[in-house]
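Re: beginner question about structure tokens

> Can someone show what the tokenized structure looks like for a real chain? I only ever see the sequence side.

Sure, here's an example I had lying around. Input first:
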Amino acid sequence: MNTYSFLKRGYFHPNHCEDFLMTAKLSPEKTMAVVLDGCSMGVYSVFAAHLLGKVLRASAQSVYAQNFRNSSALTLGESLTEIMQITWSELIRIRQQLQLTRTELLTTMILAVVDEDEKQAEILIAGDGVVQVDQDFIEFDQGNKPDYLGYHLNKTFEDWRADHTQQLSVPEFRDLSISTDGILSFQNLEAKELHFPIEEAIHELLVDRSGSDSSQMLKHKAHQLERHKGLVCTDDLAIIRMIAQE
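And the corresponding structure tokens:
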């Protein structure tokens, strides 16, 4: 399984990239991947995305240690639940310790737990974003009112998990991408009339496999989109793409 990642500050965000991404091993064959998009209307949106990303990384390390100690590793679904349960408790602890307000913890999240050997995935979505499974494009659009995790930290994890329905089970894939909604923001800013070539950007970055021999495939593709077609992402963009080896 080859993994590619791409993080880009949007053209209309001159100061900071409010998106964040990371991957972490859960076992020799299982990997966690996450993309996050801090809420521009919140407070310190960069902080929220980075904080949740770092907490998720620590949670993944705990799950890796648990899998290492036990003879039977956690399933994908169990790993996802364990990661989120650890993350939930840690976010509540940090919020109390730093006296953070709800608006300081607003970030979207697409979290994927992937079995690279079996080419399966469990994906949890909190807020908006995009998942591409082979040729199947799935957009999670909540009408500019994303259901951020930060809205629910007054609940128990069990109550939130019972009510949260945005989750995908992928029984088999050859090509899987998770992306923030910056993938939908590509524009040609030099055209006389604004041109929104979203399908071109999606195909190039999430479908086309040319250049997959390079770990910088997505960076090269984004450069080609800008150089040859004048297309730039106007919103911040974070992509993680995993392609099974033939």
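Each token stands for a local structural state, so reading them left to right follows the chain. The first helix runs from residue 45 to 69.
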